[in-house]
Amino acid sequence: MDPERALIERAQAGDAAAFREIFRNHRSDVSRVVFRMIGPGPEIEDVVQEVFLHVYRSLPSFRGESRFSTWLYRLAVNVSRMHLRKGRSRPRFTDVEVPEGPQDGAPHETPDVIVERQERVRTLYRLLDQLSDKKREVLVMHDFDGVPAKEIAEIVGVPVLTVRTRLFYARKELYAAMTAEPSLAQVMEVLVAQLPGKPRAKAGEDALRAPPEVLDDETSRESRP
């Protein structure tokens, strides 16, 4: 039997040590998902703990119909969404550091570089707050976390075409919000260069046009305010 499946079955049977091992194995992944979804803030650890509380309560119902990692990702996204909707986890950036420093062995960052990176993250999440929950989730999962469209469709429970449609309009709205703030030109120049799906032309020239495969009824619904 697959070692992870055996571990899950032990946890489902009430083995506390097995659940602690699941927590240790997946905590960093869940923390990353939560951070990507809600942005940097003091409540990230609380949200992570709440995700694993839901895992503990829902684990007996897990039947292995999807991968455990997909099931866990879905829980993390749902809990993050609940916190954003309640308004408790809107990023508060006054004195919060971005918890994504360089990896071991990476060059040491100067204070100026750290401040610039934090400013880009603060700006990005402020603009992301202007998107609807559905568009924001798809954009974060695909462009920030590298989750394939097919897996996102499984996580959020919609067709792949709907995922692609939401992603298209999320990118379009995000870049429109960026260009609407000329004072952020320098920050945005660096940020846009780091993101997928950036416009290929200047703002105001319809740089982002919907590909034929997303022009359906779902497209018209997703494009509404």
Overall description:
By secondary structure, the chain is mainly α. It is built from ten helices and no strands. It has helices at residues 3-12, 16-38, 44-58, 68-86, 111-128, 133-144, 149-156, 160-179, 185-194, 217-222. Helix 1 crosses helix 2, helix 4 crosses helix 7 (149-156) and helix 6 crosses helix 8. The chain is globular and about 55 Å long. The termini are far apart. Residues 88-104, 199-208 and 215-225 have low confidence and may be disordered.
| Estimated helix fraction | 55-70%
Largest sheet: none
Radius of gyration: 19 Å
Mean pLDDT: 76
Straight-line N-to-C gap: 49 Å
Q: Helix- and strand-based class?
A: mainly alpha
Count of beta strands: 0
Query: What's the helix-strand series?
Result: HHHHHHHHHH
Shape: globular
Number of helices, counting only DSSP H or I runs of 4 residues or more: 10
The residue ranges in which pLDDT falls below 50 over 5 or more consecutive positions are: 88-104, 199-208, 215-225
Strand content of the residues, in percent?
A: under 5%
